[in-house]
Every structure is written in structure tokens, then in C-alpha cells.
């Protein structure tokens, strides 16, 4: 149902070319918002354009793009208020810490953290008078850092910290800050992550292959099986719409049953959690490595 006040409001969604971002842009437009949908290519702009969805070329690592976004919001021809920004764009690659090149660490932080912060900084001047909302798409990886999720989890833990600080800073200004924590969602992200990991893993030394080859294989298998049973992007979009529209939103929303459980795991003692995660991964190792999965480093 569309509330009449929503018709006159803007929402910015980053990373709207695919997956959760595209589904969210469409779902918000259906609710009557005018969505500024950030994409990086003309063909994606063409595909997402529709009633209530206006594409913008937005690579969140490009300062000029972010400046143009802020100008577009500030000079809205119909003087619509900015109800929310949905910081959704991100990249993923599940690679062990030793073999993820430091430039790749920096690139991942550029997109998953600094890009989000740059968008928030640029849009706060419009969000504050509107008493708008920042909705940051984190992950269960922002709560629990599994083996080979180090780089991605580091960006998402950091995004959780930024979100907490921002919520406390903005409380007096009336800007709400909400974190969305999806578990597995069926999107292109897994394929992209496996492709990115595949490229990096192919450059491992033979010692590193012995140390991590089976782990990477197991993590990819586990991710593939949880993505297969994950929720569709529309289910994530539904939760994000709630975060944008609820009168008194919660500070965090999980997406999917798996996420609702995983977010409590950090309450376990560290060593117990290590064992729980290792046990969950064991059945995904190549058959010959299953019993020795925790000994591979010493082969
Ligand atoms: N899928 C899951 O299981 C899952 C689970 C937990 C959390 N999440 C989170 O949910 C969000 C959306 O993920 P998804 O599954 O929908 O992934 P996806 O299908 O891979 O989409 C990622 C989006 O981010 C965009 N993007 C990447 N780099 C960008 C940049 N530098 N500037 C602007 N946009 C950029 C991509 O644009 P291009 O097409 O141009 O590359 C794409 O639109 C992410 O924050 C992700 O971490 C997903």
C-alpha cells in the first residue's frame, strides 16, 4: 500500500544493477518512492529504469559520481525530501588472509566501507533536514568471521561499527540508522565471489595450495549449498523496505532464518565457536581431506 506522503520522497539505492539492490529499487518504487538507482553501466541503467526508478551512474569509489549524486538530490526538480539512502553496493571474495594481496584488501575496503562512508557524508546534508534514514546493508559476515571470509568480514564488521557510531551521532538530528544483516540470498554475489577467489587462488604458491586449497574448496561448496537454500532477493528487499518505512525501525534486521540464528553465535566462547564453525565446514571438504581438515597446514 502506498502512503500519500511517500509519493513525494526520494530514496537512493547503491548497487542497483543486480540482486538485492535491483529488487529493493523496484520494491521501493512500488511503494511510491522516487528511487535514484545507482548503477555503473549504461546497459544496467537501461534495464533498471522504470516507473519510479531513475538510474544514475554511480561508482561509489568515484568522488565525481558521489558529488553528482549529492547535487542531483539537492536540486530535485520537484523538491522532494530524501527519505533514505540504502548503502547496498559491495564486492566479495572468500580468500585466506595470507593469500589476499594487500592491494585487493584496499580495493575491497574502498567499495565496502569507504565508498559507503563517502555516500553517507555526501547525503547527510539532505538527510538531516528531512529527518531521513541511513540503511546499511551488512551481512552475517559482520557478526561472525569464518575462515577465508577475513577480508569481506573485516569490511562488514567495520560497517557495523560505523553504523553504531553514526546512529549515536545522529540521534539528536533525527536521522535513523538501520543495519540489515542478510544470511544467504540467491543473487549473483556468490558466483562473482567464487570467480574472484578463483583468480587469486590460482596464484597461490605450492605451499599455500597445500595449506589452503582444500579450505577454499570447502568454503565455496558450503557457500554454494547455503545460497541454494537461501532466500530470494525479493525477500531481502521486503526487509529493507520495512527498514525505510517503519515508523520506529529496529537498529538491526536479519534477513532469513539462518541469519536470525548466526547473529547469536558470537555469544558462544571463542573456542566453542571455532569448533562449531569447523564442524559445519567439515562435510564440505573434498572427501579425502575431511578427517584431516584441521591438520592440512602440517602436511
Ligand atoms: N547475496 C548474499 O548472500 C548476501 C549475504 C549477506 C550480505 N549481502 C550483502 O547484500 C548487498 C547486495 O549483495 P547482492 O547479493 O545483491 O550482490 P550482487 O548481486 O553481487 O550485487 C552487488 C551490487 O554492488 C554493485 N557494486 C560493486 N562495486 C561497486 C562500486 N564500486 N560502486 C557501485 N556499485 C558497486 C554491483 O554493481 P556491478 O553490477 O556494476 O558490479 C551490484 O549492483 C551487499 O552489500 C552484500 O554484501 C549479500
From TrEMBL:
One of its GO terms (molecular function) is oxidoreductase activity. It comes from Mycobacterium adipatum. One of its GO terms (biological process) is steroid metabolic process. This is Dehydrogenase. Pfam families: adh_short. It comes from the Bacteria. SMART domains: PKS_KR (SM00822). Belongs to the short-chain dehydrogenases/reductases (SDR) family. Residues 9-188 form the Ketoreductase domain. PROSITE patterns: ADH_SHORT (PS00061).
